[in-house]
Amino acid sequence: MTTAKDIMHPGAQWIPAHETLDRAAQLMREMEVGSLLIADQDERLAGILTDRDIVVGCVAMGHDPSKITAGDLAQGTPRWIDSDADVGEVLQEMQSHQIRRLPVIQDKRLVGMISEADLARHLTESQMGAWVEQVYARG
To answer: Which residue range or ranges hold the CBS domain (predicted)?
Structure first.
């Protein structure tokens, strides 16, 4: 059985909710990633911040990224998957919530992230096509 841990990208990183968006963008550049997980003061998942969130939710609105925090952009209920979950569960979670990135948790600790690129490396063409159709479908 292939699990979430088998297909995830290890090394996902938290950013504290109180950290500013300019610092988040610097971290993304340094790490060569397009998203960071947002953690509350107890290191619980509070959301995911993407480079697009920074551009659309801050810069394009005329706000100063040195004054807006990651927590200011956190919205909705954060989704995650246990590291031992079967790939079918991973796909179901991402499809049912139309999400493109999914944090992987093991023993209440962040161990990685599953992205579209990770799926593309591990799924068949048929599985990937079905995933794309569901995640990108407009409701």
So the answer is: 8-66, 73-130
CATH number of 4-135: 3.10.580.10
Instruction: Check if the beta carbon of residue 77 is closer than 8 Å to that of residue 112.
Output: no
Q: Quote the pTM value.
A: 0.83
- Give the span between the Cα atoms of 85 and 56, in whole angstroms: 33
| Of 38, 46, 45, 48, nearest in space to 15 by CA | 38
Q: How far apart are CA 22 and CA 139, in angstroms?
A: 33
Tokens 């068949």 -> residue: 124
Contacts of 45 (CB under 8 A, 6+ apart): 37, 38, 39, 78, 80, 103, 105, 110
